[in-house]
Structures are given as C-alpha cells and as structure tokens.
Amino acid sequence: MTNLDHFWLPFTANRQFKSAPRLLVSAKDMHFISDDGRQILDATSGMWCVHAGHARAPIVEAIQKQAANLDFAPTFQMGHPIAFEAAAELARIAPAGLDRIFFTNSGSEAVDTALKIALAYHHAKGEGHRQTFVSRERAYHGSGMGGTAVGGIGANRQAFGNPLLKVVHLPHTHNLEHNAFSKGQPSWGAHLADELETSVIAMHGASNIAAVIVEPVAGSTGVLIPPRGYLERLRRICDKHGLLLIFDEVITGFGRTGAPFAAQRFGVTPDLITCAKGLTNGAVPMGAVLVKHSIHDALMNASENGIEFYHGYTYSGHPLAAAAAKATLELHRDEALPERAQALEDVFAEGAHSLRGLPNVIDIRTFGMMAAIELAPIPGKPGARAFDAFLACFEQGVLIRTTGDIIALSPPLIAEQTHLDQTFDALRRTLRAM
Ligand SMILES: Cc1ncc(COP(=O)(O)O)c(C=O)c1O
Hints:
Oligomer: single chain
Strand order of the largest sheet: 4-10-9-8-7-5-6
Number of strands: 15
CATH architecture of the largest domain: 3-Layer(aba) Sandwich
Radius of gyration: 21 Å
Largest sheet: 7 strands, mixed
Bound molecules: pyridoxal-5'-phosphate
CATH superfamily of the largest domain: Type I PLP-dependent aspartate aminotransferase-like (Major domain)
Strand content: 15-25%
C-alpha cells in the first residue's frame, strides 16, 4: 500500500482523496491503468497535456537518449544544441513574427515571464509608467504571483491578500441567456471587448497600461469560447493605444483548436504567446513564451553587450524538456495532429451536443477538441453535481475533468470515434442516473 500521508496534492480536496484514493500507475496512447488494474479512457489528455497520446515511442526514446547523453547543462551564459533546436521547432509552427522563444518550466512561469517581458519592453522604450495589466474575470493564468494577480477566479485569490501587480479585470464573456448551446463561437458578446476602451482605458489611462492578457478560449473555468469578433476588437484597441496583447495558450496551444495555436485559428495575432503542457506532450515539465521579433529586438538594443533581460530559470531549456519538445513537435508534424483535430471537431461537437436535454444540463459548448457540459448546481452545494459525475465516470472507466459544475472534455488528438462514443455513453448513463 502506498503511504499517502506526505504528498500534499495541488488543487485537490486532499481529505476526500486520501479517504478514497484514485491512483494511476501507467499509461499508453488513449488510456491510463489504475492501481486496481482497470483501463481508464483519458478524455482529458491528462490535464490538457497529452495531445499525441500517452507514452508515445518517439518522445520516450528522445528523452531516454537525451538523459544518457547530456542530463543537464546550464543556459546562463552557456548553451546546448537541443534547446536551440526545440526553439526552432516552436518558431516553425508559431504565428508569423513570434519567433523568439523564452523557455520556462511551466505555464505559470511562462505567464510571469510574459508579464515581465511586457514591463521590460515598455521600460526599454522609455515608457516605464505602463505598469497596469488588464485581464478578465474567470481567467486562469497559473499559480505564480503574477498569474495569481491577473487571474480572475475568486477562490484562487482570496486567501492570498493583495496580489503584487496592479490589475484591472474586464468582464468575462460567458452568458447563458444569450449563448447557451452554441456550437463554435457564440454570436453574442463581441461588444464586451469595448469595455477595454470605454471603461478601463477611460478610467486608468492608456499610458499606464502595459498589456492585456487573455486565454483565447478560457479553459480552466469551463471552456468559455470568445464571441465572434471579440478577439479582433481587443487587438484593434490594443494597437490603437500601444498596449501589448498576450494570448495565454497553455491550454489552447498545440493543435487543441485545430491549428498549432488558437491565434492562427482565430486569425488574430498577439504580441506574446504563453504555452506549456502540450509542448512536451506533458512528458517533461516545460513552458515557453513566444515573443514578437520587434519586442525581442527592443530589449536587445537596450544595453550594450550586457545581459539584456535579468530573468530566467535554472532549468530554462533543460535538455530533457527540450528533447521532449522537439520530438513532440516533430510527431505533431508527422501525424498532422492539428489537422486531425480539425477533422474530428464536428463529430466531437455532435457527440457533446447529443447530451442536450438530459437532466440538469443547462449548456453545452464546443470548439476544436474542447467541450464543456454545464450542469445546474445542487442548491447550496456548488460543484457537487459535477464532482459526482466525475466519480461516476471514473467508476465506468472514463476520466473526465470538472471545474465547478462544468464538465470539461479534451481528449487526445489521436482519439478514434470509438473513444468519443465511449466517453459520451458514460456521460449519458451518468447524467441519466443522477
Ligand atoms: C491558461 C493557463 N495558463 C497558465 C496555466 C498554468 O500552467 P502550469 O500549471 O503549467 O503552471 C494553466 C494551467 O492549466 C492554464 O490553463
């Protein structure tokens, strides 16, 4: 029996978990194996990570080979080829112009890094007064202090006092009255972007604002899909007032929306992109910030021959992570995974929307290979209904994910029709029985 006392699990009801643990001991392709020997279909890509499926041979072999050859080497005033090769692979799939890559170890660090690049960029241009960030209600940008400050989920902030950065939140765009049961981008809500100009800039002054950070599709708070035209409006307002636009693509990157990045799918190019998770197929922790060439160059020119940006991590560009990233991105290319996601999108949406009409289902929304099924909360017990559904599906051998009373699905992009059918059948049985 594994001793469960000492590991304090993140974002987990620890006491509940330890009273009835759910342990996964191995994984391959679309499945986990639990400690009681059951096959569990992974309808969540681990946690929005394993886009190419679990334990894929080219990634496993690249990591093994790298560990035996160069386990660690510093990237402060030194370098090693595999980190540059991984950066080049990432630049290959990036939106045009975002071809300078800063490596981190997680999405949270990517967000903190992007916020610091934005501040340093304005400082280098003599506009150090631009220090306020704009984000959104219901945003999740990781657990670092910067990410916590720009985050828009009350529970993630309330125990931690005043976050360190000056942040103004725009409203989120989720509105069941107007947009329930939308397939793809909802039609109502683009006007909410205008609040950036009419409310935030009017109140705080554009010259005090460094950047706007948004998830193109908000993932952690339940797949909130941007209304048609919303991101375009944000881009226009940022351009007009000299604000940088950061897309946090930790969840939407690497084919999840049917393109390498959601920026390409939506046809809106930000100034910086944060990413992680699918970058290494979840196999080794790694994050990255994709930076517009001109922003990078503005920082390079700020000082002569000295260190240009006083920021970094011991493990930035770690050899094992870099090897995993390079192998992952090559696998995405060889198996055309973003294109595969696009080809699956309609059948996936059809399966999700087939749950409409089941008890307590108040919304279903889908975009790319992301779906949310929103349930009416049990009065006085927020989140309990969806968590019960999570436990019931796990019993039936399907791993789903829940956030509040929203079920979020994000299967690996190698999923076959039978995997999608199994997922929706388990959900149908569960929701009928509840
Ligand atoms: C949009 C977004 N940003 C940042 C993060 C944080 O990433 P990590 O958990 O790797 O620090 C997440 C994690 O889910 C995320 O969804």
